[in-house]
Amino acid sequence: MNADAVCPACAKADLQSQFSVSASQAAQSIVLPTADRDRNQRLEAHIRFLWGADRCEILKCRNCGFGFSHPFVAGDADFYNLANSDVSYPQAKWEFTRTIEALRRSRRNNASVLEVGAGDGFFLDMLGAESIEARNITAVEYNTKSIRNLESRGYRTIASDIRDKQFDAYQSAFDFIFLFQVVEHMSGLDDLFDRLRYLLKSGGSVFIAVPNPRRIEYQEANDSVLDMPPNHVGRWTPQAFSELSARHGMRVVASEIEPIDWVEFLEHDISYSHIRRTQLKPDGIPARIRSLPRGKFRRLAEAAAAVAYIPARLGAWASAYRDRRNMGGSLWVQLERDPAYLPPASSRQDHPSASAPPVTAI
Ligand SMILES: [Zn+2]
Predict the structure, then answer these.
(1) Which residues surround ligand 1, an ion (CB under 5 A)?
(2) Which residue did the predictor score with more confidence, 196 or 34?
(3) CA-CA distance, 7 to 190, in Å (whole number)?
(4) Largest alpha-carbon pair distance within the chain?
(5) What is the Cα–Cα distance from 153 to 137, expressed in whole angstroms?
(6) For the chain, which residues make up each domain, given as ranges?
(7) How far, in Å, CA of 107 to CA of 344, rounded?
(8) Secondary structure (DSSP) of 203-245
(9) What is d(CA 119, CA 147) in angstroms, rounded to the nearest whole number?
(10) pLDDT digits 0-9 by tens, 109-120
(11) Distance from the alpha carbon of residue 186 to the mean position of ligand 1, in angstroms
């Protein structure tokens, strides 16, 4: 089934299958058919269209540990429109403060920055205290309401993929580029990493945070939610970042796992295992409660249903406690350009810089 697959991070073909999911399971993980049959059915049809098949396999690379969906196809705008009826952007996150700490160490005058997937700009607002001026801040964001919020604070916004032609004009334009909880949603990784190098100034850094793969493994091994494609299509490891960076003229200069936050861990575990029960038993009581109209009664009933299963979670929590050093929510990396890198001759003509108009010497 996966004879044609290679690892999108390291390009090796030594892969093992983890499990496979159907379009119906993927759709049900987002919207239960009992809650909204029409949206569930449209989502299922669209996922099948994206995959070009009824099933998708999760593969793991034995060389770099990268996990990925096969077919390796990211969700498109239609998918996210169908999937996200109510997006809420995270506020304080560990990767934000960790990145600020790194910025303080690599201070650059008059720095120009880009955040991909900026949401309502919670992280960007932290940059003012670091002497980064609003006029030097660019945000990639699609949500209309968020764009208005960002522009009201003086940030420039661009509503397109950084791999699109529009970004050809930004060669070596940014000292720092931020992608928080974005890269795990993306395919087309060779183009992405080529582009990050292209946009980055010499001596600048890219900061990326993704879900910690160990946490994903814990959830999937302990009756909690699956990290489901095509929402998340990549499961990143430090080695996967390192291999992909090396193939595109960059290198990992720092890599860290978030220290575990037990309140966050327990809240998510109780709620995710409840959601998983509703998926596994669509006719069970937890699923029936989750299919009620949104409101205070449903919230209370769901909380009660989730709490009733706490005794069943104790074994899983004991295993998480034993592995607590590796169980934080995020994996964070800092990348820089590799000054010694020469792109392979065959790919040089495909590089964005090669298609730029010729510069006339004065
Ligand atoms: Zn690999």
Answers:
(1) 7, 9-10, 61, 63-64, 66
(2) 196
(3) 11
(4) 76
(5) 10
(6) 15-83
(7) 32
(8) EEEEEEEEE-HHHHHHHHHTTS----TTT--EE--HHHHHHHH
(9) 8
(10) 899 999 999 999
(11) 16
